[in-house]
Amino acid sequence: MERLIITGGARLKGSVTISGAKNAILPILASCLLSDTPLVLEGVPRLDDVVTMQEVLQSLGAKVKWLDDVMEIDPSNITSTEVPASLMRRMRASNLVMGALLGRLGNVRASYPGGCTIGSRPMDLHLKGFGYLGAKVHEHHGFIEMEAAKLTGTEIHLDFPSVGATENIMMAAVLAEGTTTIRNAAREPEIVDLQNFLNRLGAEIRGAGLDIIQINGVSRVGREIAYRVIPDRIETGTFMVAAAITRGEIEIINTIPEHVEPVTAKLREAGIRVWEEDDRIIVKGVDTWNALDIRTLPYPGFPTDMQPQFMVFLSLAQGTSIITENIFENRFQHVGELRRMGAHIRVEGRSAVISGVPNLTGALVEATDLRAGAALVLGGLAAENTTIVEGVEHINRGYEKLDAKLRRLGAQIRRE
Ligand code: UD1
After folding, report:
1. Best mutation site among 160, 166, 187, 296 for ligand 1, i.e. most ligand atoms within 8 A of its Cβ?
2. Is 32 marked active-site?
3. What are the extents of the domains in the chain?
4. Chain segment 257-281, per-residue pLDDT in tens
5. CATH no., domain 3-19+231-415
6. Which of 45, 51, 103, 291 could pair covalently with 317 via S-S, beta carbons 3.0-4.6 A apart?
7. In sequence order, which residues have a C-beta less than 8 Å from that of residue 363 and are 6 or more positions away?
8. What CATH topology corresponds to 22-228?
9. Would the pTM of this model clear 0.90, i.e. be above it?
C-alpha cells in the first residue's frame, strides 16, 4: 500500500505545469466509440482513471496505443456492447460509454458504476434521457440493459444539471435521427471540450457552455484528427491553494484562468494575491487570511471538487467560515481526518462550520476519496511535523505526479 510522507513548513516556490483535464479526457475517450475512424488525442494525463477508461475501450474492441501524453485510438471495430463489471465498479465515469455505445450499436449492458463514495450518485437522469431518445431501458439485479432499433431526437429537460447525464445524452444524440435539445444542461468547461471534440469528428452540436444544448443528428462521425484536451481546472485550483496555504508563490502554467474564476474570486476574498494572464496564473500567499462563506454549485458556481481543499485552507484562516455542500450529500469525509491534524470543524447537515486555528499538526490520516486526498496533502504541506497520508490510490486516480510536482516546488514529500 502506498503512502505519502510529508514534512510541512516549506513555502512552495516556482512553476508548475498543469496536465490535461481528467473530467474532459474521460468523456472524450468514451465518445471515441462513436467514431468509425482512428484518431489521436494529445495532452492525455497519466491517471489511474484514464487507464481504467483505456481498459474499458479495449474490452469493447477498440485498439489503443498510449505513449507519453499521446493516445492513438482505433474504434473502427467495436466487438462488444457489454462493459465488464470489474471496470464499471472501479470508476463511476465508466458509465460514460453507455450513451456512445447506444448511439453507435443500439444496445448496451453494464452494471451500476462505482467510484468515490461521496454520495449515492444515481443514474436516473442518464436513463431517463436515453428513454426519451427511444431506448428501452431495463434495470435488474444491479445491471442496466438498453436497446434501441433507432434513436430519435427529442426535447429533454434535466431535473438537475448533471455533468455526466448531459455528456451521456449528448453522445447518444450525435447519431440519432433529427434534433435533440437538452434543457437545464450542465455548463462545465469539460462539456464544451466534448462538444468541440465531437464537432471536429463531424458531429453537429451547439450551445455547450450554456444551459441549452442542441444536437443535430448526423449519419456517421469519424475523421483522422488530432485533438488536445483542455488543462485540468481542479488540478489548477489545488496548486493555487497549495501556494496560499504554504504562504508561497507559484506560477501555474498551461491553464485557462477563466475556468477557475470561482476559485480565484474566493482566494482573493480571503486576501490572497492572484494574477491572471493568457494561460498562466500566479498566486502569492500572505501571512494571515480571512474566513469565507462558500456554497458549492454547478458551474460557474464554486466547484464541489475544490471543497475539501478549501476546507483545509480555511482551517487556518482568521475567524469562522461556513462551507455548504450542495452537490453531493456525503462529501465531508475529510472532516474527521482534518480534525486529527488539529482543525476545528463542526458539521451541521450539509454545512461545515470551520473555526480557524493558528496551526495544524502532522498526523496519520487516510484519504477516503480523490479530492479529500488532495486536501490532506495540502494540510500536510502546511502542518508542523510529519503527516502520513494513506489511501494514495484515490489520489492516483486524478492527479498526475502530484508528489513530483510538489517536490519541484520545494515541498518535502515522498512516496513510500
Ligand atoms: C462529475 C465529475 C465530478 C464532479 C461532479 C460535479 C466527471 C468524470 N466527474 O461527476 O468530478 O464532482 O461532476 O461537478 O466529470 N445525479 C442524480 N441523478 C443522475 C445523475 C446525477 O441525482 O442521474 C445527482 C448526483 O447524485 C449529484 C448531482 O446530481 O448529487 C451531480 O452529479 P453529476 O453532475 O452527475 O456528477 P458526475 O457527472 O457524476
Report:
1. 160
2. no
3. 3-19+231-415, 22-228
4. 999 999 999 999 999 999 999 999 9
5. 3.65.10.10
6. 291
7. 337, 340, 341, 342, 383, 387, 388
8. UDP-n-acetylglucosamine1-carboxyvinyl-transferase; Chain (3.65.10)
9. yes
